[in-house]
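Progress report, Aim 2. The chain analyzed during this reporting quarter is listed below.
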Amino acid sequence: MTVQEFAKTSSKGPFNMQDRYVTEDIPMGTTLSLSLGQKFGVSMPTYECIIHLASIVNERDYFTEGRNLRNLGFDHYSQEDLENYLHTGQKIKKTLV
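Predicted structure tokens for the chain:
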């Protein structure tokens, strides 16, 4: 099968903005990826645009209601803290300053 044939037969993506690829993947994955990028200084303008457009079309605020470091309770974690959590499953205690 050629690349063109594969593209033609496998390109059955979302046909509307209420498709689960939009309503689930953007708030559950894309917003978290953007949140991580923002935390560590990685520019992600395409992700920002995708989230923004989907929010407008679906009349939702995926930036706020989607998964992100803040609403998962990891916004105060450093990169080292996040890496440690991913490897060990051990959360750090939040210290008040």
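The chain has a mean pLDDT of 90. The CA atoms of residues 14 and 21 lie 6 Å apart. These observations will guide the mutagenesis work planned for the next reporting period.
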